[in-house]
Amino acid sequence: MIEAKRRGGRPRSEQAREAVLHAVDDLLLEVGYAAMTMKGIAVRAGVGRQTVYRWWSTKAEILFEACVDDAEEELAVAPSGTRLAEVTSYLDALMRFLAYSPAGAAYRALLAAAEHDPAVKRLIATKDVLRDSAKAVLHRIDPCGSADDHAIDRLIGPTFFWIMSGRDPTQLDIHELARSFLRGSGPERP
Question: With b meaning 16 or more CB within 10 Å and e meaning fewer, what string describes 144-180?
Answer without folding.
Answer: eeebeeebbebbbebbbebbeeeeeeeebebeebbee
